[in-house]
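Final report, closing paragraph on structural work. Over the funding period we assembled a curated collection of sequence-structure pairs, and we close with a single example.
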Amino acid sequence: MTYTYDDIKDIKLGENYTKNYTEFRIFAPGRKKIDLLITDDYRKVRKEKFSMVKTEFDIFYCKIERDLDGFFYSYLVEDKYEVTDPYSKASSINSLMSAIVDFDKTNPKNFKKFSPKICENEAVIYELNVKDFTANKNSNVKNRGKFLGLCEEDNEFDGKKTGLSHLKELGVTHVQLLPVYDFISTFEENEKFFDDDNYNWGYDPELYFNVEGSYATNPYEPKNRIFEFKKMVNKIHEAGMNVVMDVVYNHTFKTSDSNLEILAPSYYYRKNPDGSFSNGSGVGNEIKSENPFARKLIIDSLKHWVLEYDIDGFRFDLMALIDIDTMKIAIKELKKIKPYLIIYGEPWMGGDSVLPREKQILTGSQRSNGFGVFNDSFRNAIKGDNDGYGKGFIQGNFTLKNQIEIGISGSIDFDDKRKGFADNASETINYFACHDNLNYFDKLKISLTDHDDLEYISRLGFAILFLSFGKPFIYEGTEFNNSKSNNSNSYNLPLSINGIDWKDKIDNFETFTFVKDLIFLRKKLEVFQLVKKDDLRKALTFVEDLEDNLIAYNICFKNKKIYVVFNGLKDDVEVDDFKRKKIFGEEISLVKIFDKKGKINKKIKVSELDYFSKHSVNVYIRGENYGL
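Its predicted structure, as stored:
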């Protein structure tokens, strides 16, 4: 039977609950017999069994006419294999059975009341792991490492804010959560939660529509995890921030024994010519997103998170493995629900794939398609390679000056000298570190033999990041020099490595203040919301013919002129008459905004500028209203 996504997109798969009856639909091509198993306790061996009827599009159907709220179910495939529903919206602990839930009973008070509509061009993204962020005792959070831990406010350690209050203080606009959908690589029991061997970031998908239970206070009760996740989303919204989910539709943890493969053999996964699983993910399989029902699974799941949980955006893991057509359809469908929703992802994969290259989402594929990609070339230009000793501009590799300037301009085709990969600046996610690889501070430590100026070098990287066009993105703890003890792949390491130590905020409070002030300045200036090529070319001018260790540019915007100078050298640079004329053009009075420690507001004449400090950012503003 030949059909397209459009033919099936409106079919409701999975269980569809009402108080009087529940319908069950499961796609199972090639299967002749599917039975529905139902029980009021997932631990029971004996379950009620109902025959399902095969209908159009290889969909098996069954309707049970009674109230099944709180019941558990699974599918028995040809009397051999018992599997969960790929469309499970809830489950038992550890995903042993799917669960039926009356979602009207899962909403916190005032749910969806506080969702702020933040324009994507205003985004300042902060990536965190629910467990890492508050698991340390010095977070002084009651529900440490849980969804509810991110709901708590006014927590402090030694007078410094922690948890949600820290995020508000920092001023970020979007909180990107590492996987919070149901993953299979940890035990969900609370008594195992802080065990060293029970940790994983969660890039091991099991049930794409279901909330992860290990972050709930009662993972045994299906409604509990839903309620607490919704409460967390609501609290983040109430604090003035949007919520972005990290999603992993490129592969599943299980392969030949997954519910997808058992229900629909060789349909949901790409296969090599010899019948083996294509492994573009690097972990054993990859989802065949171009197949209509696989495409539907992905899009239906995304829509469920937006409609049911009020999610504001998605970060796609190994986005290259999601075919470009599926992504375009998904964005169109999601924008109908939330026009301000943001989409971005990794424009690479973890191995070779049978997906044709023209269908892969690689750097450049995002051009004018409504989503962004991580900018690894800007990342490497700022701080060097991910895990090695290579240096970037901030550590003294000034051959990367042009690459830095491309990043500053939003990675558009700015001019003949500075050519990027984006049609507009909203398509680039600017970052120097994320959860993968060495974190920022550890990378700087191993790449520098002299650590005397390390804090200033670190701050210079932040300054370049936040004073560039595009969406800035930082990873939890980098704003106060958090370390992972040089572990470059900590996905399953204990909290002693991954957990945020809030003492670092106290020890590095000047760096935190510097980052906070940079975010404040970026918002206040408003110019960095510009994304269109023509607007950027009109507003931004780079200063030519300076030493390679100096990057200077000025921005004209709303009756202001902003001058920015980065000095990457480990020595002060004298400001002579040549530099004054090149950078500032004339004898003028300015307001200097930054020193090495953070925001200041000091009037200065250009003729009085003696030097640019080593490893420094220098920001000056001339205009009718400084507003700072």
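The chain has a mean pLDDT of 96. The chain is about 25% helix and 20% strand. We thank the funder for supporting this effort.
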